[in-house]
Amino acid sequence: MSRYPEIDVAGSPYEMGRQIGEAARDQVRGFCEVGLARTQKTVAVSTERAQQIAAACIPLAEAYAPHMMDELRGVAESAGVTLTDLMMLQVRNQFKPESDAGCTSFCLSQEPTQMVVGQNWDNDPALDEFTIVLTRRPLDKPPLMTVTQAGLIAYIGLNSTGIGACLNTLPAPSREIGVPHYFTLREIYEQDSLDGAVRAIRRAARAIPANIMLATPQGPADLEITKDDVFVLRDPQRVTHTNHALHPEIVAVNDEFPELIESYPRKQRIDELVDSQSSVEQCMDALRDHDGYPKSICRHANEHPDNGYWTTVFSVVIEPHAGRMFVSRGTPCDHPYEAYSL
What we know:
Blueprint: E1 6-11, H1 13-23, H2 25-39, H3 47-64, H4 66-79, H5 83-91, E2 104-111, E3 114-123, E4 131-138, E5 144-149, E6 156-159, E7 164-168, H6 181-188, H7 194-202, E8 210-216, E9 219-225, E10 230-234, E11 238-241, H8 263-273, H9 280-287, E12 311-319, E13 324-329, E14 337-341
């Protein structure tokens, strides 16, 4: 049970969707059944309002990326769920984005073309049973591999062009309706450069802020994304991020939002633990760190009334140049990292 289920699909968008729905039917149905209920543990949104938001986002997603909507239609038909059910999964972080997840991420460049990007994904442990490692091989776009909840159009992973991506919540102003965050992330995997990744995000009418840690052929980069712009943080050797804004043009937003699950101490700690010379194993050790336990980089359940049940659901270290990622199914301090190859 230390490995996630592995699924490999290929073909047109609709064909890939059909294959995903067939191979991960139980996970897709299960995630659709409980996804909103788990979100409602921390977000005050009615089922009716959630369905309205999902329905309103479908035409925006269709205009942004019709091929991604074709894939979701294939998933829906094959898994026996509705398209609105699947869209609810894509937009659930639009109900109250500052409570989506608190994560620690980094990207290190050991050589110009060899980078390591990684993170702990701190969230609801109930989502583990719906998580898979999914490889997609489109007909006319780069192959990509992600560790993801079944039914999402994209999540954490890498593509064949040297792009690797990790995700953090970035508390900032938001709106309910827009192109879902996961669609812009999938568009990043269809690029081969940092400039292409930024353009992919900017062309979307977005609803929520987010942070994306990237390994790119042009080096490490972190994208602090608001609903209106994209701010790029770069360093040739190391970029780190937790859950507060760092770019000088938006750092003032931190004063408007409460700190998300001890973001500042985790940022200070990850900066102490990793640098451009850190090996993959040293990166794994950093993600096992318990300084400040239980509210540490490796996060465990604690007494917080709103998000104390969150833990590090999985930990991931990605080598895009090698087409490989290492994932621990559970807290990395007591679960092994398993290798998955594109």
